[in-house]
């Protein structure tokens, strides 16, 4: 008779797991744990897709899922990043954790550090779209859309050079990405919503996109259909490891014991993970979005890299997203950021009603100083982290859940997760 599997810590494989956080990462982890026969309960202080999973651009773009700290960030200079209209905004702060994050982020914004981090992301990028296909084949009732056109558009060919150089570095790191170099006229022939200001473009191939809010809700429905519980309005305030499990306490007064707990709380990851030895600062990198009517809804995403503005067709409207604002995750939406995105996009889009915006939104991406997520066991063999994906939580959420669930249940070392050790 085969021995029961044990975890890397020598504990019995978990049979009942609490997942804290009902975004893409948490629900993907719950779903893949169910694939291993685990009973799951997902707890969230608000509800499904209430955080950064709802209003983001919804890109499934492993070809350009790169580390956020990059040499281009340093080119902005201090004056630029302190401007509220800058696409990367760092407000002045005396908070020690924030200062530690900014110092670490700056230290990792070198080409040497970027290449090292990119090499760590390539193995999970390569499994990301396949992981979405596993969710589809397992019954998740939401489509992923193939991109007939995914255009990165620029005013000039000189502006375009930055992305072409980055693609060369992506290729040298082992990441596959196919693309075409286009003139502005060629780009407008593919996508009429581009204005005459566009003089150069790159078309990326073999990428996808989703309506993120609808997709995450469909994923939640699948978790429920397979016997999982999803508890909204459940604010986890404490975890206490016992000899046989982990007691989960909520602000609402409940207490329940589980074999293991997964922390997938996005920008709030450090609140509970720090108690279990995770010292990496997880900083909110807030992104903004809104939707507008447009004369011609694009067939796929449109990206303006020089302005850091991302556009995605969502139904019969265009979602316009942008900004990387390093502030507290609970801070109120700042209309200056919405206006900055609007004015950056206005000259580049044709037929977009940018003055009649709907669904204005801000969400907090969980960013780490080295640009790599935190995935795996904490100091406790019963408490696991799953977060810190920066801009790529949607793209990498399913592969994160897939590999972490395998590690938790089988006890095997998963080589793709090694660079993301939360205790690094």
Protein described:
The strands form four sheets. Strands 4, 6, 7, 8, 15, 16, 17, 18 and 19 form a nine-stranded mixed β-sheet that branches. A six-stranded mixed β-sheet has the order 10-2-1-14-21-20. Strands 3-9-5 form a three-stranded antiparallel β-sheet. 52% of the residues are buried. With 424 residues, the protein is α/β, with parallel strands linked by helices. The mean pLDDT is 93. Helix 1 (24-35) packs parallel to helix 7 and helix 1 (24-35) packs parallel to helix 10. The protein contains ten helices and 21 strands.
Task: Spell out the blueprint of helices and strands.
Elements: E1 16-20, H1 24-35, E2 39-44, E3 59-60, H2 71-81, E4 88-89, H3 96-107, H4 111-137, E5 145-146, E6 151-154, H5 157-172, E7 179-183, H6 184-190, E8 200-204, E9 208-209, H7 212-225, E10 229-232, E11 236-241, E12 246-250, E13 255-258, E14 260-263, H8 269-273, E15 283-292, E16 302-304, E17 309-314, E18 317-326, H9 335-345, E19 358-367, E20 374-377, E21 383-387, H10 393-410
Parallel strand pairs: 1-2, 1-14, 2-10, 4-18, 6-16, 14-21
Antiparallel strand pairs: 3-9, 5-9, 6-8, 7-8, 11-12, 12-13, 15-18, 15-19, 16-17, 17-18, 20-21
* Computed Rg: 21 Å
The averaged pLDDT comes out at 93
Helical content, roughly? 25-40%
CA-CA gap between termini: 37 Å
Structural class: alpha/beta
Count of alpha and pi helical runs: 10
The biggest sheet amounts to: 9 strands, mixed
Query: Which stretches are poorly predicted, pLDDT < 50 over at least 5 residues?
Result: none
Beta percentage is 15-25%
Q: Say how many strands there are.
A: 21
Overall 3D shape: globular
